[in-house]
Amino acid sequence: MALTDIDLANMDTQPFFKSQIRHLLNILETLHPGIKVYVYTKNDGPGFDLLEMPDNPVHLFNTIPLNVPAILEMTSAKEIKSRFISNQENAAIFSTEPGDWAEFSVLSPLGETENIEGFSLSIFPKEFDQDKINLVVFDEVASSITINSLTSNLLESYKDRSEHLSVMLEVNTHLNVAATKTDFLYEITRFGKYFIQFDRAVLVIHPEDTPEYFIIDSIEGDETGLQQGMSYPVYNSLVSKTILTGHHFSYRKSNNEDPEGIYRTGDYLEYPYDQVIGFPLTKVKNGPGVLVLESSREYPIKQSELAIFEMISQSLGAALTRFSLYERLNNYATIDTLTHLYNIRALKQRFEEELARAGRYQNSLVVLFLDLDKFKSVNDTYGHLVGDFVLKEISQIIRDSIRTSDIPGRYGGEEFVVIMVNADAEACMASAKRICAAVREHQFEMNETNIENRISIGLAEFPRDGESMQDLIQSADAAMYTAKRRGGDQVVKFEKGMVPKSRA
Predict the structure, then answer these.
(1) Which CATH architecture describes the domain 3-152?
(2) Which residue in the list 353, 414, 452, 495 is annotated as catalytic?
(3) Is 290 helix (H, G, I), strand (E, B) or coil?
């Protein structure tokens, strides 16, 4: 479809917005099977209206008043955070049929403090375990919904500028399906040249965990003078100024105004471009990054073109937020929050994949089953905080003792599994013995308390000790239990006749 084929004056941008919302809600519903999430937006009166979506139940109230306890608490809070709320206390917030729901729900504000634009309401099935819920995930989704809402509002506000809106709508659509940050930048440059002439586009990312630096994340065009992955201090440069202030910058060599630097102090002296403009990805101080456009020649740029490109950079910022969100949500879904190893679901998935590969190509595969000796006494004597500390330390020892190609995971409690691919049993036995020795010699010290730990490890080999995941884990478990019966603190290879604890 050509840009001029779109009838912009009569176009409804809400379907774009709602499809993005639905996609984000699907993520939560995938992470927590049985959950239902609904979005309410502020109305002109004293309350919030349910956003119409295809799967909204008819029994859910369409309007929520401000006097519901959870709403009063949300609108008066000093920070935007998701929280658990009691369904019974907030009965008016739900519907006429709350009988099959859990005793709690999650309320996630949308907007900023003192300017709440709405909220998402996450309802869980009855008997759902509240301890399995990570509220950070709900915060991330709510933040992304808010950004999408801002983008939608910007599009609506520019409906009278049909040429601009047509580009924005197509940019927004393409960014929603872009898979990587490189794809994002390619789409931005492809559409951006419709407004501003430039030879190179550079995406600068300002990480939250290292705010004193920014990183050259992606380059579309000639990489002369820059390199992807390079980092610079947020100091004495035009890019730094945009990060710190949230305002765009413009540089022309003919103005004879020497800046302190473009990317770093003094680099303008050998800078190969005559004109450069930088747009913040969000118009906030200490923002997430800058889109930099560089041209080998100077061109006149209209104020309207600057304004529309600011909108394009905001769309890029929103798209990158979604991309980052999906990466984090994938970690939440696959990584054990305490040990930062694979959780049991992801571990089993990787196990099946590697097992299929080993069978297809006749590769070797070894499984280690690890269990801390007498770990219950650690929890009983020192408490669960110390127990959690020990599990974290053990996880790091496991990571340090195996190859980067091996796959470690937490199987449950104090049990761990390591999948060792393309390695024979003898080499894996050596790795397992290193883990035993490292645990034995490690100083587990917390709150001036020293704790000694030992670990028992069972080893099973594919296909000698089993051809399925279940059989291999059972064989390794049986070998581990044999190690415990022999006094623990050792590695045992599976032999016929060994049985796991459950069948001992």
Answers:
(1) 2-Layer Sandwich (3.30)
(2) 414
(3) strand
